[in-house]
Write a structure and sequence with these properties.
The complex is a heterodimer. By secondary structure, chain A is mainly beta. Chain A contains 1 helix and 10 strands. Chain A has one domain: Porin, CATH 2.40.160. In chain A, strands 1-2-3-6-7-8-9-10 form an 8-stranded antiparallel barrel. The radius of gyration of chain A is 19 Å and the shape is elongated. Chain B is mainly β. Chain B has 2 domains: 182 residues, no CATH class; 110 residues, Immunoglobulin-like, CATH 2.60.40. Chain B contains 2 helices and 19 strands. Classes of the chains: A mainly beta, B mainly beta. At the A-B interface, β7 and β8 of A face β6 of B.
Chain lengths: 200, 317
Amino acid sequence: MRNFLKIIFIAVCLPVSTSGYAKDMLIDVNVLFAVPDAGSSDDFHTGKTLSVNYNYYFLSWLAATAGVFISEEISTDPITDVVGTYQATIESEGITFGLRSDYQFSKRNRIYGRAGLLLYKSKLTVDEFFSPGVPSGSSSDTTDGQGYFIAIAWAHSFTKRISFQLELSNMTQLDLFKGETTRPFDLSNTGVSLGLGYAF
Amino acid sequence: MMMNTISISRLLPRLIAGVFLAGSLTACEVEVDNNVPGVPPTGLFAAVGANQHSGEDTAQVATAIFSEGEPIDLVGGDVVQASTVNDSILLLERGFFNGSYAANLPISANLDQIEFTIVHEPIEARQNRWYPVDLINIDPGPGDLVGGSAIIELPPEPVITTPPGGIFTSIDDIFDINWDPLPAGDIIKVRSAITCDDGFKTSTYGTVATLADESDDGSEGLSLDQFIYDFTSSDPQIDFIIGEARAMLAALLSQLSNGVIDETFLANIAPVNPITSECEIRLFLFRQRPGSFASATTNGTIFGSRSAEVTITYNPN
């Protein structure tokens, strides 16, 4: 499945990269502010995820989009239970590919939506502290897999080429550590992203 | 209107005195802590308890370990396991008395023996966490207490024969509580959870009945003044439930009400004067049997009990 998705990603990127058609392409850079949610009492802080997307408009309103993303280390609150006090940190990177559809409703403004699939690589680290005299420790592991993203947004053009965009976005990584644990989980990042686009 | 005026003029001094005395009672005489009594300031001490109430298919089990007078946190995967021959459970929740860990252990019919063992289960002890603890786990290894164990035997449930319920009108009233005796050397405890209502406000509190003897002889004489008191009296002859017993009764009330009744039930003492109010008295009869620690050198308290309940009513009007 993962190899199949990579082939799709390359198939999308190659024709786009060989085309030099002005105004049909848009590069956008976004910062997503989101609280990761592992579906339980995880209590993650808000974290930032940087993404760069390359959009090729093969119709005036429809583009193929591909991008990369990388998050900062995002930690949970320290949580204390009967075993100890633990704090988890997760960081992710990956690639995205999908479609973007725009609707221009005034000379400078448009709305658009983006959706597609993603491939991720994530690292989960847990630091744990016990009572005095019992050594604390840290453990981490890395996993990769697939997921999806979806966003709706508003874009405002400052100039003919440069635009500002505001997205409501969700990126979901599916089945982290599946095959390695009896307790795989999904990781959802829902939040607001701010970005700039450059058309050429 | 005239009656109201007279009532208020009569009641006002009582009300002021009542509020004053109730304030002094709650501040000075009524302890509301859940501490285990008798914990020595030095050395190791363990408190282990289990109770199964009539009709319940689980026993409430709890244990706490103290060192130098302070409760020890079991950490890193060290955890107390309570087990019968059919079921076992890890005590992963904070328990009803201070420093304790607790759980509800399924008790199949006619199973009486519960074994408590301190085990090292670094994965199972973290089962309530959200991340894959079987993959990402920091295990500091077993602590010094791992391997310690104790055994409790639950005595048979005390079957209450009388009173089947009744209405009493004076705190001077007396009655007998009777149950099927058992010549096994168990001891009997009577504790109460009381709700008094004057039509406007409600008091809820708990008491411990002082028994002539605690032997399992099938009968005990009780008087209403062990449960109902006059808070305008400067010396109410009543023993409010405190410490470990209070915590255990609160936990039992919570279990029987599916969590509706919490620990505050036994501490809501002042709002009304019980002697002038209608009160529901839930009497809990505990048959208690001492358990044993595997190591003869272990210092502590250990008992198992089964309990039954009967409700009587006090109505002075």
